[in-house]
Amino acid sequence: MILITFLSLAVSTDYNIIRGNCEVLLDKYFFSMIDFKDMDSIQYRPTSSEFAYILRLCSDGATTDIDYFDVFLIQMSSKTGKSVNVITQNSFDYRPLNTANISEGFIYYADSEPFESPKDQSIRTLDLEIQIRCDPSITTLDIQNLIEFSVTDSISAGKFIAKFNHSFGCPKATHPTPTPTPAFQVDCEYIDRLDSDPKRGIWADLSFMNDGPYGIKTIQNVAGVNHYLYFQPCERIQCPPNFICPTKIEYSSAWLCNESLHCDSFGVSNEEYDFRPIDSDLTKGMVLRFDDKQLDRSFELTLTCLEDYPDGHIKWDTKSASISSSSVKVSGKTKEVCLKPIPTTTPHPQAKCTFENEQGNYKVSIDLEKLNKGQGTGWTADVSVMAGHESYPPSKLIYQPCGSVICPADAFCNGDEDAEIWLCFDNDGTLECDGYGLLKYNMTLELFDDDDLSDGVQASYFGDGKRRANVIYQCNENLAEGSLGLPESVNLDYRTLSFFIQSKDVCPKQISPTTTSTTQTKTLSPTLTNTITHTQTQTQTFTKTAPPTLTATVSPEPEPEKRSNAGGGAYFLLIVFCAAILYVVIGILFEFVKSGAVALPNASFWSEFYLCVEEAILFIGSCGKKKGGTQYDKI
Predict the structure, then answer these.
(1) Which residues of 553-578 are buried (b: 16+ CB within 10 A; e: fewer)?
(2) Cα–Cα distance between 412 and 395 in angstroms, integer?
(3) Among 20, 209, 420, 633, which is most exposed with the fewest C-beta within 10 angstroms?
(4) What is each CA distance from 217 to 10, 45, 114, in whole angstroms?
(5) CA 548, CA 529: separation in Å to the nearest integer?
(6) Residue 342: strand pairing partners
């Protein structure tokens, strides 16, 4: 029994864990499926899919084919004849089938990195779960016919599940519960506001880009030679499985390995890590750097913005790396360093479910805990799931704004128990639920639009496997306080779930009513007050929930002269103005449905158009004699 003694204890888990190659110690229970390394790969093709799959349950460590020795799942397209490696061993982790009784079995799972579909080159992910339930009577290695498959591969964020009963799902032995090492605590969050617009900037969290226990794997090709980089942005990892690392180095955040399976460390992410903008222009990206001072080595990653890419992932540039004996420099693109709205008000850290913001004489104040329904019950609604152009089964949404709902009865919840958001659907007679807001993670609250209280409040929740949820609370005065209006549909973009909630509790309220007396002759003051007195001593009272209608008696004026009807030019301008409004509104709605973000349509085009107009004005205004030349002259 050989275990790779890499201890990784998340403070939020209910069990300690030591991982090995096809072996794991969950608290005191030791599980092993190392004998699966001697069996042939499993082939499976869903009847309703054009894809076929090759699944491996355990690697034998043989490196006769360096391109496939650590691959556990391959997807093949019957139409194009192409294939793609979906899951590699570095991403695998373990969790119990039932945290209340770990001896029932375990789940061997991996979250997929984005890949190009062999069908149409679209960007997709396909997570893998292998569920092994304890059955001491089953010992055979010929398990092809024992496995129950469940594959969802028609959407951009799919899942491949293989579950079966076997003696390998029973604990082989019990050991003393391992003592956890101190938690790796590094603040990997970076916030930098634009000088020109403090409400926008870079708000990045490197920990959200972490992958499995052995980091993200990327193959960097330099001068025709492949180098295998195992990288974790905000964590330490031990030597990758089946590779050989220096015995004196236990942890690294960047292992660089060669085809001979030898690895070297190029730095450890710690409290001294360096993450900063490339220069004062935040749109040019960020640079992450950390060093191995003892070995005089360094690692540098340049990240630039890519909006249309799954959250929490890096699209690597695999052919521009610079590698030497003392440094590694690589680059990639990610959504994490794109400019985004940054809220000016955050909830008090000791009251994570409360939020308050004031603008002028109005404020929004909400306590999500007061909106909870029942003790661990939550609000429920049958919803349709909008997953782009892909199909998704009718689902059930379970939502508790600030509290936990345990995994629904008779449902399979992938080893999770307590969540604030569940999205459940029927999978061949089994209710399966994914937690998009787990209680063990903190949630955040902010204005949906930083400039307008009436647009509502957004609550952001986080789950495992880079799942997250954006819940937008919108004002509805017709609802009773403490009640919620649930959606009929939700939006699912890769692993990000978004939906709207109606609530009276989020409606802006007036906080400083005043009484103003004005002498009114012809023009009314635009200031809204509780009582306005006119020269005729007429009094009008305003409510807090509806805009007032201002009326006044003024001296009669001569009837204005009749003017001719509007000409063709006026109609033309009206048509252009209406078309522009429709373009902006429809474009914003399209971008929101597509990516879950509120953004102007074709933003990059209009940005470039503005720069061209600016350059033309400067050129004409200076008669072509602009100091330093024009941008055109520099081409």
Answers:
(1) eeeeeeeeeeeeeeeeeeeeeeeeee
(2) 14
(3) 633
(4) 22, 27, 12
(5) 9
(6) none
Are the beta carbons of 368 and 383 closer than 8 angstroms?
no
- Supply 95's token pair: 């969790």
Rg (CA), the chain: 29
**pLDDT (tens digit, 9 = 90+) per residue, 7-55?**
333 334 567 888 988 999 999 999 999 999 888 889 999 988 889 999 9
Q: Cβ(434)–Cβ(460) under 8 Å?
A: no
Task: Summarize pLDDT for 345-391 with one digit per residue, the tens.
Answer: 444 445 678 998 888 889 999 999 999 998 778 999 999 999 875 77
Interstrand relation of 411-412 and 430-438 (parallel, antiparallel or unpaired): parallel
Find the largest Cα–Cα distance for the chain. Answer: 102
Residue pair 12/441 in contact (Cβ under 8 Å)? The answer is yes
3-state DSSP of 432-484: EEEEEEECCCCCEEEECCCCCHHHCEEEEEECCCCCEEEEEEEECCCCCCCCC
Q: What phi and psi values does residue 469 have, to the nearest 5 degrees?
A: -140, 140
- Phi, psi at residue 587, to the nearest 5°? -65, -45
Domains of the chain: 6-174 (2.70.130.10), 189-340 (2.70.130.10), 346-509 (2.70.130.10)
Q: Are 495 and 468 in contact (CB under 8 A)?
A: yes
Strand partners for 457: 447, 473
3-state secondary structure of 616: helix
DSSP single-letter state for residue 389:
T
- The angle subtended at Cα 5 by Cα 112 and Cα 265, nearest 5°, is 70
- Containing 593, the helix (H) or strand (E) segment is helix 568-595
Residue 452, Cβ density class (10 Å: 0-12 exposed, 13-18 middle, ≥19 buried): exposed
Distance CA 366, CA 507 (A): 9
Instruction: Report which of 100, 85, 281 is spatially closest to residue 201, judged by C-alpha positions.
Output: 281
Closest CA to 346 of 493, 501, 189: 189
What are the residues whose beta carbons fall under 8 Å from the beta carbon of 220, sequence distance 6 or more? 226, 227, 228, 229, 316, 318, 319, 321, 323, 330
Helix (H, G, I), strand (E, B) or coil at 36: helix
Strands 105-110 and 92-96: antiparallel
Nearest-5° Cα angle at 97, 93 to 99: 95
The C-alpha atoms of residue 510 and residue 60 are separated, in whole angstroms, by 68
Alpha-carbon distance 213 to 3, whole Å?
14
**pTM of the predicted model as reported, rounded to 2 decimal places:** 0.65
- Condensed to tens digits (0 to 9), the pLDDT of residues 401-459 reads 998 888 888 788 876 778 899 999 988 788 889 899 887 788 889 888 887 888 999 99
For tokens 């990639």, name the residue.
Answer: 332
Q: Which DSSP string corresponds to 406-417? A: EPPTTEE-TT--
User: Mean pLDDT over residues 62-73, rounded?
Assistant: 82
Cβ neighbours of 361 (radius 10 Å): 15
Q: Any residues with CB less than 8 A from the CB of 135 and at least 6 apart, and which?
A: 165, 166, 167, 169, 170
